[in-house]
Design brief:
heterodimer, A: about 100 residues, 4 helices, B: about 220 residues, about 80% helix, elongated
Chain lengths: ~100, ~220
Amino acid sequence: MFKELDPILHSQLRLAVMSLLIGVKEAEFTFIKEKTNSTAGNLSVQVQKLKDAGYIEVNKQFKDNYPLTTCKVTSKGVQAFEDYVKALQQYLDVGKK
Amino acid sequence: MNEEKPLSQQESLLIIQQMISTAKTEQKDNGMGWIIWGWMLFLASVFTLINLKFEWSANLFLFWNIFGGLAFVMMILDLIRNNFFRKSIKVKTYTGDLFMKLNAGFFISLMFIIFAINLGSRYIHEEFGKGSMVFVNIGFALLINLYAFWILIYGAALNFRPSVIGAYACFALGLTAMFINEFEWTMILHAGAILIGYIIPGHIANNEFRKIHSKG
């Protein structure tokens, strides 16, 4: 029986954001934008969706009069990511047979 | 990246691999800390050795005192730079956090050993009325051991083989230094440990870092 792939993660940009954040403690919005090669508008929308799902924490503050947004994965996000990778593995294993 | 594009399983896997590899790149050390620290220690050992041969100064520890002064000034400059002039760090990694705490622990232990060397030497001088190099030689052996421990954790955390090999070589040199009671040989072993433990891995790390970042 195949597990369904988590629709929150099964999207190009959201998956990229989660894969990037999973390996670090926290990252600035500008860093994520640069590494995922996305636009600020699109990234904001996807970050908000991940936040609403409880997969990431978003911290907004000001530094030297400039807005500074940082994101970090929550434990729920780590679990969801692990489940997603396991489910993905199942699909790929079947594809190999 | 286009959000609306439907994803295949293979594409998902590729995105995960690419992004994890990007995050890994951020954790690479440029090796400059090892290089600067390593060369300073190496030169202090070598100049002390030359001083022993040519007797430039009666103070055997002249170059170690210069090293200590320079290290202190650099530490202050680094603190000022980090607290007042550094731009915000765009990404924080777990290894970065570990290294900050590890470095603090390393410097505390370093000061502890240096203090113990001075205290022990003074005690012998006061008790027996003459100087002895026993504490100094054993102290340097302990310092080499401390470098090895620090290098091993660094190498293991970054999965950087040259540091892991360097660390074990340092342990061996530190152990050898423990049984040597000639200051000249202690300095040679110390310089060797620094070369293998800091300088060579530092330059290798720096080359790898530059290669990765020149690729963009």
